[in-house]
Amino acid sequence: MATTPAVSVKGASRAAVRFAWGVVGYNVLVILWGALVRATGSGAGCGNHWPLCNGQVIPLAPRVDTVIEFTHRCMTGGATFAVIGLLVWTFRATVKGQAARVMAVASMVLLLNEALLGALLVKLGYVTGNQSMGRVVVLSIHLSNTLLLLAALTLTARLLGTGQMRSELRLRGKNALWAVIGLAATLVVGVSGSLAALGDTLFPASSLRMAMEQDFASGSPWLLRLRGVHPVSAVIAAGFVLWLVAQARRAGAGRLAMIVVGLLGFQFALGLADVLLLAPVWMQIIHLLGADMYWVALVTLAAAVVWPRPTDGVTVRG
């Protein structure tokens, strides 16, 4: 029996696709500001109140840490409206069965979960100088959710452009397996990197030698001894990613593959600079910006390899 070919529909309007990528960019800014909150110890700037700030809708005579934390909450609120707008626009610009709808819904769910986890950190007091295991656990879940949210938004933007159907998005074969492993390994790198940055913030070192001694000293806080996980996981993840890049070049996505390689190399350079400079706040933010750009490019590359753009099929205007 002959197999019915997958039917692809026309991608959404350029305006919808641009808006979707704009939402991705805005969420990157929210992530960067969240890192600033952590790096400056401003997580308790609004006290133990959420969603209010120190019991007020708009804080009066705020301290610097209050301004930083309140700004982050305002940016998060803006992200909520942006993702809601993306969800509505995606459903209006597509037809039933298109994959972009699935990713838009996933983005909305992950954003709500993001807000819940952020509120949990505040209400449980897992901010500023808190060094508990509970903070590390909740923060790790929070960071994982952040990267998954960014991935869902990225896939929404891409699938709006390609117009692919949900039935086409299947994870089969070696390429799909390696792509998933590569993304999962990179997610571990992102989470371990943020935990390493937390260690740098809570236990700053006055010299590179002191920082190295902290990592291996038996009496060091366990958070510092975990810092070694980040570079090791980065090297392991890079191996999977380079394999994925090779597959992408064979599949005709050479330009995107080279962007990923360039960003990967840039990340290693930023990581080395971060260590040599003893992780100042501005360097942590730049390093995180590079990581977010790399993650977005990698997710896009993985989609291009596993779910290539349809080259034929029926074109339907949504």
UniProtKB/TrEMBL annotation:
Annotated transmembrane regions: 15-36, 70-91, 103-124, 136-155, 176-198, 228-246, 258-279, 285-307
Signal sequence annotation: none
InterPro entries: COX15/CtaA_fam (IPR003780), COX15/CtaA_HemeA_synthase (IPR050450)
Pfam families, per database record: COX15-CtaA
Subcellular location: Membrane
A biological-process GO annotation: heme A biosynthetic process
Keyword Metal-binding set for record: yes
Pathway: Porphyrin-containing compound metabolism
Annotated PANTHER family: HEME A SYNTHASE
Protein name as annotated: Cytochrome c oxidase assembly protein subunit 15
Source organism of this protein record: Edaphobacter aggregans
